[in-house]
TrEMBL record:
Organism: Ploceus nigricollis
Keywords annotated in UniProt: Immunoglobulin domain, Membrane
Listed InterPro entries: BTN3A2-like_Ig-C, CRTAM, Ig-like_dom, Ig-like_dom_sf, Ig-like_fold
Disordered as annotated region, ranges: 171-206
Domain Ig-like residues, every copy: 72-160
Presence of the UniProt keyword Metal-binding in the record: no
Polar residues compositional bias, start-end: 178-189
GO annotation, cellular component aspect: plasma membrane
Subcellular localization: Membrane
Protein name: CRTAM protein
GO biological process annotation, one example: positive regulation of natural killer cell mediated cytotoxicity directed against tumor cell target
Length: 206
């Protein structure tokens, strides 16, 4: 006699008899020493340890851990600026299982890990992930990209990019002229200067 149990210890199949009335389970092969089944359309609630029991003179048990992968959402990029502390980039993604990997890529080819935090969702199954990167100085021509990697994506990566030129254009439109507000000025940047993350030393100013 052969028997398959789901993680909740309910019998799925007993020999060829389907005990658990769930159309997502299908019998593939049955013989005196094999009971193969197929699971389809699974959700994170279906993951866990599935057990196959073989009843002879002694009960033999084999277990299979089923882990459900959930792809994270497309990243959302947020930008904020602190006076005297440069630019803060935040990259957020939700719904990943297991936790996604987030890195930052600058135009000069440097890839950085950033400061990444994971938070488990209310259901206790999927993760919300946020990574932050602080840029001390930058060039308008530089682009910073947030890159999401996850097993459910395979070789594909999710990317969200920010062009520092967009920040300068926004400041030009919103900030009054120096004569009206001398305490506020747009950040100066040379086109030849690459973006410098907070982990890099800041050159001394004369």
């Amino acid at each position: 006699t052969l028997q398959w149990l789901n993680p909740q210890k309910f019998t799925i199949f007993l020999n060829t008899h389907q005990v658990l009335r769930d159309q997502r389970y299908k019998l593939l092969r049955y013989s005196k020493d094999e009971l193969s089944i197929q699971l389809s359309n699974l959700t994170v609630q279906d993951e866990g340890i599935y057990k196959c029991l073989y009843y002879s003179k002694h009960v033999q048990t084999k277990s299979q851990n089923v882990e459900i992968l959930a792809a994270p959402s497309h990243p959302v990029l947020e930008v904020s600026q602190d006076e005297g502390r440069g630019i803060k980039l935040s990259c957020c993604t939700q719904g990943g299982r297991p936790q996604p990997q987030i890195s930052w890529l600058l135009d000069n080819g440097i890839e950085l890990p950033g400061d990444t935090r994971h938070q488990l969702g209310a259901g206790g199954k999927k993760w919300s992930t946020r990574s932050t990167l602080r840029i001390l100085s930058y060039s308008p021509k530089v682009t910073a990209s947030c890159i999401i990697q996850h097993p459910a994506l395979g070789a594909r990566r999710l990317v969200a990019s920010f062009h520092f030129q967009d920040l300068l254009s926004t400041e030009d439109a919103e900030i009054p002229s120096p004569s009206e507000n001398p305490a506020v000025s747009s950040p100066s940047a040379s086109p030849e200067d690459p973006a410098v993350p907070s982990s890099a030393p800041t050159p001394a100013q004369p």
